[in-house]
């Protein structure tokens, strides 16, 4: 099944504040200029390219966090433009896990509360949440850190909490924006191994954005993007 199908996707960011002042009127950033990309179920793919090339923008659109300026985006065969806000929120909650570069952990919640948060949103009961929590905590080596708040964890540990939070829903698709940025190479490698293992055992589809050579080496497909356009798309056999 095609999990993500982008056709001629265009994304322009306007600069409304300046436009109102009249000085930079009509100035628009063309973040994506006609991107067509398909990702099949079970892919372990990286999107690479220089800073500002449109990687995060693409992941946000694939994750239904923002609207397109042109083209179409289908998620699991459904055109996102045709879905209501409610339907989009449901799709995000149920099928998509996000790992953001800035982690986006909730500071007042403990590690385990942060990890279980998506399951609370899905309305699972306490018992079910506990049952799912244990293996995820173990897989990410977070035993003993369950009660700590994000500020009491290292960058790598916070990243692992963010990954655990994305994994606990068992989403079909995980979108990870620079998942190894700010991590030392050993921690980065460990995290990639965890993700690869999930990909192999559960068939979870992964799409990362990255600057990191190591991530590109792990990926079975590397899409190069530059100035909002696809420059290369290379697959290698596993
Ligand atoms: N909310 C926004 N408003 C205006 N311009 C934006 C916005 N978000 C991104 N941009 C611009 O769109 C372009 C693409 O940005 P994007 O964040 O997708 O790049 P990126 O490839 O993820 O870069 P990086 O590697 O630095 O994270 C850049 O020129 C950026 O300045
Ligand atoms: Mg980015």
Poorly predicted regions? none
Q: Helix-strand pattern, N to C?
A: EHEEHEEHEHHHEHEHEE
Give the percentage of residues in beta strands: 25-35%
Helical proportion, percent range: 25-40%
What is the arithmetic mean of pLDDT? 89
Name of the top-level CATH class: Alpha Beta
Span of the ends, CA to CA: 19 Å
User: Which architecture per CATH?
Assistant: 3-Layer(aba) Sandwich
Could you say which overall geometry the principal axes of the C-alpha atoms support? globular
Structural class by SSE content:
alpha/beta
| Topology-level CATH name | Rossmann fold
What ligands does this structure carry? adenosine-5'-triphosphate, magnesium ion
Give me the Rg, rounded. 18 Å
Give the CATH superfamily: P-loop containing nucleotide triphosphate hydrolases
As laid out across the biggest beta sheet, the strand order is 6-7-8-3-9-10
Assembly state of the chains shown: single chain
Describe the structure.
The chain has helices at 16-21, 55-62, 85-95, 111-121, 126-139, 155-167, 185-202, 213-218; strands at 2-14, 28-40, 44-48, 70-75, 78-79, 96-99, 173-177, 205-210, 221-226, 229-235. Helix 4 (111-121) crosses helix 5 and helix 4 runs parallel beside helix 6. The longest helix has 18 residues, at 185-202. The relative contact order is 0.19. The protein has eight helices and ten strands. The strands form two sheets. Strands 6-7-8-3-9-10 form a six-stranded mixed beta sheet, sandwiched between helices. The protein is globular, with a radius of gyration of 18 Å. The chain starts with a strand and ends with a strand. A hairpin with a 2-residue loop joins strand 9 and strand 10. The mean pLDDT is 89. The chain is α/β, with parallel strands linked by helices and 238 residues long. It is 37% helix and 28% strand. It has one domain (2-19, 29-235): Rossmann fold (3-Layer(aba) Sandwich), CATH 3.40.50.300. Magnesium ion binds next to helix 2.
């Amino acid at each position: 099944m095609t999990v993500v199908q982008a056709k001629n996707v265009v994304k322009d960011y306007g600069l409304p504040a300046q436009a109102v002042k009249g000085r930079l009127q009509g100035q628009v950033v063309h973040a994506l200029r006609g991107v067509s990309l398909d990702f099949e179920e079970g892919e372990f793919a990286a999107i690479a390219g220089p800073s500002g090339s449109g990687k995060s923008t693409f992941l946000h659109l694939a994750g239904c966090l923002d609207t397109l300026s042109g083209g179409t985006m289908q998620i699991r065969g459904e055109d996102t433009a045709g879905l209501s806000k409610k339907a989009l929120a449901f799709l995000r909650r149920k099928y998509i896990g996000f790992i953001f570069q800035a982690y986006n952990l909730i500071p007042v919640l403990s590690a385990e509360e942060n990890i279980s948060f998506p399951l609370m949103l899905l309305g699972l009961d306490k018992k079910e949440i506990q049952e799912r929590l244990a293996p995820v905590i173990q897989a990410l080596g977070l035993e003993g850190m369950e009660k700590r708040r994000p500020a009491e964890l290292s960058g790598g540990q916070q990243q692992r909490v963010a990954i655990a939070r994305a994994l606990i829903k068992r989403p079909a698709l995980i979108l990870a924006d620079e998942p190894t940025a700010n991590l030392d190479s050993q921690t980065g490698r460990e995290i990639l191994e965890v993700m690869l293992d999930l990909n192999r055992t559960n068939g979870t589809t992964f799409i990362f954005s990255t600057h990191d050579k190591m991530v590109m080496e792990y990926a079975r497909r590397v899409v190069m993007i530059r100035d909002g356009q696809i420059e290369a798309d290379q697959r290698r056999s596993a």
